[in-house]
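agent> Task received from the user: take the single chain below, predict its 3D structure, and emit structure tokens. No templates, no multimer pairing.
agent> Plan: (1) validate residues, (2) run structure prediction, (3) serialize to tokens, (4) report one or two observations.
agent> Step 1 OK, no nonstandard residues flagged.
tool_call: predict_structure(input=
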Amino acid sequence: MTTPVCTSAANVATRTLPYAAYPSFSSYMKARQPVLLRTARSLTANPSDAEDLLQTALAKTYVAWERIEDHRALDGYVRRALLNTRTSQWRKRKVDEFACDEMPEPEGMPAGDPAEQQALHDAMWRAIMKLPARQRAMVVLRYYEDLSEAQTAEVLGVSIGTVKSAVSRALSKLREDPELEPVR
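)
tool_result: status=success, residues=184
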């Protein structure tokens, strides 16, 4: 007989047989596995998930094997482990969607002709380019870059009141632009 070179390798070899410590667990598992698998399948929709669930419940049972006093009630113990494990999995599940009475998304406007949308886009930029440079910068920062009034003021080095009044005047000029008449 050869002796192992490394003692930890010998320990690993004995640990690869997990049921060697409890032969009664091994015989129980082999005898009851089909019945317990049916129970696990009743708790999950996916057969693969049921197998994983049963394996986890059996692992928990194996760990508690010495503490289980009445081995006649093992099926009940494993079924409870199955149910508790499944409940824990369900609770840990991340819910991304919530049921509600109304749709949170507003109904979108019907998609228009892409050529018309491009024409409107071009007309808007032509109207913005007609604005004085300072007003144009404030409109672009506020509405295209989506900065707040305070952020716009900080970027341009002006007061918040200046941003408010300049943007108000710019929007008034854009409302009066004849090229944007079809939009109104």
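agent> Step 4: summary for the user.
The CA atoms of residues 88 and 94 lie 12 Å apart.
agent> Done.
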